[in-house]
From TrEMBL:
The keyword RNA-binding does not apply. This is Post-GPI attachment to proteins factor 3. It is found in: Endomembrane system; Golgi apparatus membrane. GO terms for cellular component: endoplasmic reticulum membrane; Golgi membrane. It comes from Zootermopsis nevadensis (Dampwood termite). GO terms for biological process: GPI anchor biosynthetic process. Keywords: Golgi apparatus, GPI-anchor biosynthesis, Membrane, Signal, Transmembrane, Transmembrane helix.
Amino acid sequence: SASVGDRSPYYRSCLEKCSNANCTEGGINFRSSVGAQAQPLYLQLTKWSCQDECQYNCMWKTVVITLSISILCLNFFQWPFIRILGIQEPASVIFSILNFIAHYMMLRKFRREVRKTSPMYWLWHAYAMVCLNCWFWSSMFHIRDTPFTEMMDYFSAFSTVLFSFYAMVVRLLNGQSRVMTVILSFLCVGFFVHHITYLALINFDYGYNMKANIVVGIANAMGWLIWCFYYWKSQLYVWQCALFVLLVGVCMIFEVMDFPPLMWIIDAHSLWHFATAGLPFLFYRYV
């Protein structure tokens, strides 16, 4: 359902007038070549259509009007952000890139210091690649929120949660049962394919996606903590894994918080990305 901002009579009236005056049918192109040429190149490169321009400009007009008579800020499906060079959520983009860089740096260190013949080498190598893919699409989604980038962001985020769970179970098995590892691999791949197929082709259900992430995430965290408790005395380095899991839980506080963006740039979600940027340095020391 539409948000309070999207349902605002002022916003809806502004959007209708802007679209009728400037946009072709469908809202993709500008009616006049003057309007198209007036759009800066960086907005063209980031695919801001005529309808997108109307929505952005009317959003800010509505925010200004609302704040002039109330201290409450309207939410337009998401909070209003100031775009910079066509980037919708600049802070989230920067912090997503920081996460990408952190995983990339630790992957390079992992490759230098760990032998390819080590039992878990390819598992953690694959984990790093999954994480890099996740933060790449997080950056793309926050640059421009489109149906495609949204799907890729959600799918890659779930792939990271699910792969972490997979790696945890493989670590628990410790190479003792290849049959169980193969079965686990098929189950995880099958569940992931079912998950993204359902969301992409049947129903993009935000609630279902969130529940799937929470259930797999809790199972993953509990598994790692149980493993750490079991090996706490025999393997002194497991405290790094335990601390990582606990810090991820603490960082999740930002994900459940919700407040208007500070300076119209930094919101709770971007702070969640900022808080996780340093965690790879801890986790890769453990693996």
